[in-house]
Amino acid sequence: MKLSIVATLYQSGEYISEFYQRASKVAQQLVGDEYEIILVNDGSPDNSLDIAVQLTKTDAHVVVIDLSRNFGHHKAMMTGLEHAQGQRIFLIDSDLEEEPEWLLYFNEHLNKQECDVIYGVQNKRKGRWFERKSGKFYYWILDLLLYVDHPKNITTARLMNRRYVDALLLHKEQEIIISGLWIITGFDQQAYTVIKKSTSHTTYTTVQKLSHLMNAITSFSSKPLISIFIIGIIIFIGSLVSASVLVVNRLLFSVPLEGWTSIMVSVWFLGGVTISFIGIIGIYLSKIFIETKHRPYVIIKDIYKK
């Protein structure tokens, strides 16, 4: 198998037929008959599954993986990659905002650069004012808190070789942030500038985007926990300075100490020590918490193919 095209389905019913036709045409142009199209149904509430299953009855190149419920876009993508058998794997969204024809340009660029991955990146983020501004804020926070260099305005669409995908699948996390896994997997990855279309409203609400941001930060960075520790140290040092000033004033200048002063110094001192210790313990607990969860990140209900 030379090529696998992997896409997920969620409220994708109106796009599947056109996506299938365009993806099939591009794949045949590139590798002849040695390709597969893997569609992962992520608990879509519309008729996406029915339409995709009909394709498997007429085309042996199509494989449909039906998940038992909605597990999330990133987990569905990883499931598709797990079942992909091609030497090159093209991951793309099925809503046609990312064009199947990009595969031709990505493949040409991959051969020319002799790299492992070609991924799409937008010069300008699509959407209205709020979506563009929130996108800038999202990547600003990531730059501030992550230890890895996260590319800005990346797309789902990417062409990967076999060894990269095999390495990517070595990650066995339950809470998957796939863009972070793409980065930490390493290898030679090159950006290719694309222009996304706007074919539908996003299914991500503001709350979901904030949740995704927090999940990304806590999955790939311990900086929030370290910040707790640093804040505790600052409070602790501040309390020592305040206590020193009070002692000097009392001994050298005979300034009387009032009761509330000693209480406040004690509270600040103990608070700083406590927060510092909680920060240290929290760092270790977070590592243990992440490593001890062994739930399957998806459950496959059925696989359809001819």
How big is the Rg? 26 Å
Pattern of helices and strands: EHEHEHEHEHEHHEHHHE
Biggest sheet strand order reads 7-5-6-4-1-2-3-8
Number of E-type strands: 8
Number of domains: 2
CATH architecture classification name of the largest domain: Alpha-Beta Complex
Q: What's the CATH H-level superfamily name of the largest domain?
A: Spore Coat Polysaccharide Biosynthesis Protein SpsA, Chain A
Structural features, described:
The protein is of the alpha/beta class and 306 residues long. The chain has two domains: 3-137 and 148-200, Spore Coat Polysaccharide Biosynthesis Protein SpsA, Chain A; 223-292. 52% of the residues lie in helices and 16% in strands. It has ten helices and eight strands. The protein has helices at residues 16-31, 48-58, 73-83, 102-113, 129-145, 162-168, 178-184, 206-220, 223-252, 259-292; strands spanning 3-9, 35-41, 62-67, 88-91, 117-122, 154-161, 189-194, 300-305. It has an eight-stranded mixed β-sheet with strand order 7-5-6-4-1-2-3-8, with helices on both faces. Strand 1, helix 1 (16-31) and strand 2 form a beta-alpha-beta unit. The longest helix has 34 residues, at 259-292.
Features:
single chain, 306 residues, alpha/beta, Spore Coat Polysaccharide Biosynthesis Protein SpsA, Chain A, 2 domains, elongated
